Amino acid sequence: MSLLWLFPAGFIALTALLLPLLIHLARRSEQRIIDFAALRWLSARPRPRRRIRFDEWPLLVLRLLLLALLAMLLARPALTGVADTQPRVAVLPGVDLAAARRAVADVDAQWLWLAPGFPRIDKTAAPPAAQPVSSLLRALDASLPADTALTVVVPSVLDGLDAQRPQLSRAVHWQVVEQPTATAKPVTIAPPAMQVRHDEAGKQGLRYLNAVASAWNGPRPQAANDSSAFSDDDKLHVWLSAKPLPADTAAWLQRGGRLLVDARTQVPIDAQRTPLWRDANGSLVIEQISTAQGHWLRWAAPLQPAGLPALLDADFPSGLRAVLQAAPTPRRALAARMQPETGAATYPQAATELSHWLLLAIALLFLLERWLASAPRRRSRQ
């Protein structure tokens, strides 16, 4: 355990200690009375002397101490190495508390909800059952000292997981409580709707996009020549033309628009090109163009089988949809298979600030200072 100062510049406030010293300074001159006879008989040795004295020492010391504590408060003292090693039991909302207490026999542990803020079970009601379990486990692991034992009580089926098993810095007692779970509703995502603008050469690739939309069971692409402006910002804009992109494309991209351009579209010199999709032979199909104005996708070759053989592959529609619309990450799994692994780095613990204790001491000293300053004996002296 050691003491540190989070804001050492706060000690500049110690210069305020001069103020009570000046207030309590007794300016009294000690003079020697000499009977005047004649100016020539006056001695040059005895001169008036001054003594530095302070009135009301108890009140002065109290005020100095009060100002010193205020300076310490500004410097934000804190202690490191103060570890709360009381065991923790985190219960996922939705788990029957009675069943959880029967499963966990640790009576000295502190029971928490596995929810944002980790509220105590004995002081708060149950939060909503839908929680990001993996993120909360990592946050709870980071907030606890390394020597604190952690027990997590979860239902038999977990929802709200990440794409991988959680990895923590400590071994967790993973307690699974069997209870009925609600059937998860299947998540269906509508296929991308396309709006196409083309020239005469790009019109030849339109039939392949129509076939893709049919394989997706999605709406037929809205096609028009390249002189027509895009009209729907929510759809995927497909530009199959050798002309430059419309002037409002940059602003539309910055608003989150999605754009897929022809291979004939010029790429800025300072753009970053990232391959996104290659066919079975390793030939590039689609790349991502990244510039200061935004990101968009670009065909690697014109939409013709001669330059883009992947158009004739049976999995071309699914591959294109995977690039345009990533599949949702599985978030539901059996709890018995999702016990957290160890191996994560131990997180440094935050220092414990002493501000609340200093505030209490300052308040008590201020009340004592006011009582001494207004004492009857002091008023009688004045």
TrEMBL record:
Residues 5-77 form the Aerotolerance regulator N-terminal domain. InterPro entries: Aerotolerance_reg_N, Double_TM_dom. It holds the Pfam family BatA. Keywords: Membrane, Transmembrane, Transmembrane helix. The chain crosses the membrane at residues 6-26, 57-79. This is Aerotolerance regulator N-terminal domain-containing protein. It comes from Stenotrophomonas terrae.
